[in-house]
Prior knowledge:
The complex is a heterotrimer of chains A (273), B (236) and C (274).
Chain A: E1 2-12, E2 17-27, E3 31-35, H1 42-49, E4 57-62, E5 65-66, H2 72-75, E6 79-82, H3 95-105, H4 110-123, H5 139-152, E7 157-161, H6 169-184, E8 188-193, H7 196-202, E9 205-210, E10 213-219, H8 220-224, H9 227-232, H10 239-247, H11 256-267
Parallel strand pairs in A: 3-8, 3-9, 6-7, 7-8
Antiparallel strand pairs in A: 1-2, 1-4, 4-5, 9-10
Helix pairs in contact in A: 3-4, 3-5, 4-5
Chain B: H1 11-14, H2 17-33, H3 38-53, H4 58-81, H5 85-108, H6 111-120, H7 125-153, H8 163-194, H9 213-235
Helix pairs in contact in B: 2-3, 2-5, 2-9, 3-5, 4-5, 6-7, 7-8
Chain C: E1 3-11, E2 20-27, E3 33-38, H1 44-51, E4 62-69, H2 77-83, E5 87-90, H3 105-115, H4 120-133, H5 149-161, E6 167-171, H6 179-194, E7 198-202, H7 209-212, E8 215-220, E9 223-228, H8 230-234, H9 237-241, H10 247-254, H11 265-273
Parallel strand pairs in C: 3-7, 3-8, 5-6, 6-7
Antiparallel strand pairs in C: 1-2, 1-4, 8-9
Amino acid sequence: MTAFRLSGVSFSYGKGPVLKNVSLEAAAGEMVALLGPNGAGKTTLTRLLVALLHPDAGTVSIGSETTDGKSPEDLADRVGYVFQHPDQQLFARTVLEEVAFGPRQRGVGATEAHDLAMDALVHLGMHTARESHPYDIPLAQRKLVTIAAAVAQRPRVLVLDEPAQGLDRETTDRVSALIREMAGEGVAVLAVSHDLAFVAETFDRVLVLTNGEVVADDCARNLIMNPVRATDLGLRQPDAARISSALDLPGAPFRMHDVSQALAGRLHPGGLQ
Amino acid sequence: MIIGYQPGTGPLHRAHPLTTLTIAGTVAALAFVLPGPVGPAVLVLAVVLTAVFEKVPRILRVALIIAAPFWVFAALLHGVIAQDPTRAVTLSARITAMIVVFLVVLASVHPARLVDALVARRIPFELAYLLSATLQAVPRLRARAREIIAAQRCRGLRVRGPFARRIGVVIPLALPLILGALAEVDERAIALEARGAASPSRRTPLNPPVDSTVDRLTRWSLGVALVVALAIRVLA
Amino acid sequence: MSVEFTAVTFRYPGSADPALSNVSIALGERGSITVLTGALGAGCSTLLLVAAGLAPHVTGGDLQGAVRTLGENGTTKDGRASLAGRVGTLLATPWTQLSGMSFTVWEEIAFGPANLGWTRDRIDGAVDRALATFDIARLAERDPQTLSGGELQLVMFAAVAAMEPVLLLLDEPVQELDPRRSDQVYAEVLPTLAEQAGIVIATTNVDRAVDVADRVLVLDNGRILADGDPAPILGGSTMVAGGRSTTAARIARDAGFSEPYPLTVDALIQRVVS
């Protein structure tokens, strides 16, 4: 069951093509990461998915319906979108109000909206800040609030633009865990990121967008553990993968935890004390 | 919809910023001084032609959108209720002339050139920057409003439909918009400091506005025209 | 030293808890690259703002103790006038630093030098050098409003560097950049800039910073936790366990290496093969 699909999508802002004949499809519960250098068209692609933009050619579909003639508000019950910079969307007086906004727009009652919002905030460890003014909390926490706001909409497709940016390791891990949890519940997740290390830790399927074209759509391992291919695609192997490749660790692990384990196994064959 | 500076090479673009501002001020004043409906109507024609010659015709579409509600209002108030269609046309023309000239000025005055023009007149840099930034406030607020509305649409905010609902949508955003704009002023202050604004040296103009004879003559003539128009209005 | 803090305690307006507590430090000498790190909210950004004279002047708040930047007192008007252009500050939110007065990247980079009253020739030279150093010549005619996040960050960094300051205070300067670009900044741009300036970088991601930093300063809840050579400090168990160190160090620790943990991939590999 296709959760979202782009078919032969092309788009231009008027000064040259930004996306050229892009095709991408994901099923319910699938986690997809979209990588690419700055200016490759990643954010544009996410905006097409939520009908903030419409393709010049090709179709964009959420579920079985295309975004043709639709507006973002028509899709809000199915798609949650997290903007790259939280300050682009924060506007309520309290964190709780902000997160409850989405459900309220759908016509959900105040109590139920409150519950949905609290649930989302708890998931992101932000419930203690629920009465704070969004601009009184640090930037990284504002980011988590915007993610909670999208989660509270109970979407079937979750689109995140640079979710790990500006976050420290601990907070990034929290976001990774949430993404995996959402996928486990059947939500299709698309994350746009230029941070290959974050992508490597969380995602199995990775697409690479360069100059508006999809140049790779493969499992993370094939892209990350193949240094030649990674370089060709303009990707820099994350440090964990570099260690694994250089030391030729058994099983070719590329996630930090797996690399540590394999390395420990190599150095202390009898096991650690 | 484009509001704000658009690079160009027309006469208003090349004119000294103070000249362009004087033109705008004079037109705005004349819009209310000239007896209607002929006076304001001619003025509207004049500013529309200016927009065309300045090669910023796109602002006319924006002007239309902004002016339309005023036309409706004037038509209702004076045309239908007071049964005075002439007055309706006059009022609409006055407002339209002001809207168009304001947009033309926004489109043709490069904010940095305005700052340089003011600094050359011995106005302190920070004040000049503030004045120029105020002109940019409208496009910036619009850009910010657009972003916030786009984000809220992704969360289900309904923006199409009856006018009343659209107003209902904008009102709760008004306060955060204004607060956000004020916070932005704060941030700009940091940005300015970090870019050498506190320097005691006089800023070097990158595209120095030249106050030519034509500029000075134009401003004088406009001043005279305004006084004459006022005199005629008072004496007639 | 370019920046000297003596018993500095700083509170933001309306905040009971101090963002910086009794901080005494000297840093930023020309040619040095110092990394300032800590948990989010530890005070790294605040320290930079105070050093730049932007806090409390623009942010408001209450400052106790003494701050001297390049020998000046940044809290006075004369001090700030003297510091203009000599201290380059790059905030973590590059879009807030746009002048609003420029419609091309070239104009935006020239904004700072123009404000400093340089001659047209000197401005042209500085902008050209900045475009070259940051490898953004292809963006010169673009409208800054149309740039992507990463492009804008590079442009704002270039705009600050174009003033040829002797002290650069950078808050997460590569946050929006893709890995190739951020590597380029650490490997090429920063060493070039360090030839003329003292550099202080606040960042929570020290993976690449350790390649160029000669000093690390770790903050925790507004206080200095550690200060000195990166290898022993970031290679220590507490730092690594707390997520304050590099990926390589973390992997080394989890794999059972002994302290001090290697900070870079190369160092880790060296340890293994030997």
